[in-house]
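The pair is set out directly below:
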Amino acid sequence: MLYGMILLPAAMGLFCAFTGDGQRRLRRAVLLTGQIVLLLLALYAALSGRDYASPLWQITETITFSLRLDAVGILFCCLTAFCWLLTIPYAHVYMPHQGGEPRFYAFLFATEAAVMGAALAADFMTLYLFFELTTVLSAPLVLHGQDDGALLGGAKYLYYSVGGAFLALFGMAVLQQHCATLAFVKGGSLLPGHHTPLVLAAVFCAIVGFGAKAGLYPLHNWLPSAHPAAPAPASALLSGIIAKCGVLAILRLLYFVVGPEAIRGTWVQTAALTLTALTIALGSYMGCLERGLKKRLAYSSISQISYVLLGLFLLTERGVMGGMLQLFFHALAKIAIFQAAGAVILLTGNTRIDQFRGLGRRMPLTMACFTVVSLSLVGIPPFGGFWSKWYLATAALSAAPGALGYVIPAVLILSALLTAGYLAQPIIAAFFPGRDCPEALLTPVDEPTAMMTSPVIFAALTGLLGLAPGAVLTLTETLASCLL
């Protein structure tokens, strides 16, 4: 089963590589069928309650490639399969205007296979292999347009991600000498008496290196270049899922390699929390200054993904709950808002925030979705994003070391205000264009149903699960108890 969850999307990507533009309906049917099967496999594994494990390759006594499906893997696999499934009909309408569909779908589903492999990794070497593959296979999605912006965005994405991965590899090479095994073990496997300054420095290097994929300062600058260059279906998944492979790697490092007890109260925890707080504030501030639509959303991703890291670095159950809630609700909201932005760009040609005037009348369904998920990203109750930010703020008040216990909640409030500012601006312009708005900016646009299917579903889930969060809260509480 574990092999199938990786090989199936890889096979779909290979199939797409050999289908032409004249086989679009066949390609869509195969992708939808295969993705539904993949989601059912993930849900079956989750509901069966079994702890699946499968060794792949024994290289040395201490280095192996192996797979295992635990609670962390279940969350990532189910969320990945679901988000890819809902993106297929959107991409089917969007991508003919971009061209190069076979290549796009081939790399999109090859990337999904790599993400699933990272989620299913049972040890560090397997995780590192798939972590690097997510970068290599998703880079062509950023480069898809092949213009100057795409080439710059793709190059920065590769440089930052691969450079960060090498920094993480250096840290893990040091840790390998001080851990009993590189296999993922609850509580970590750091050897007694090996809690040394060198080990702490290695952990910090790995955090910063893996954090590059998640947009953690100072290796965050690839996002504002990569997101505007990628087609909307790709940039949505890049922010909602692919960038969170960095979060997954840090989670495994802290809770399954070194162990939270070895990090709690050290300078590494303080430095990591400081970096995340800085990233949250910086991303929100830069979002307010940016006028380009997708670039503003990219800065939002820098800020919002660091909320997840903040919860992990607190090293408490409540913090982990907040981080996992943010991971879940941010994926839904950010995919929806990038797809709504893609619809606006495709149907109106508007790429800047100051061009949103009157869009509420021209594209009411699109802007309604944009508004709902924006409220969730700000953290307005009763939308889903409120719950993650509430748990993170309360966890920081009770567990963050020293003055950070007060600084972090203040940063979260400041970030929420800044987020409200940069997301409210286009919404107000769209629905309240002013009496002097030219009639040409109020002419309705035909919103294609197929394109709007996934943003509507994502937005509805953000609202409904915010109103009735019981199942999601239970899931994240169970996950947190599995880590601590």
Remarks:
- The chain has a mean pLDDT of 87.
- The radius of gyration is 21 Å.
- The longest helix spans residues 317-348.
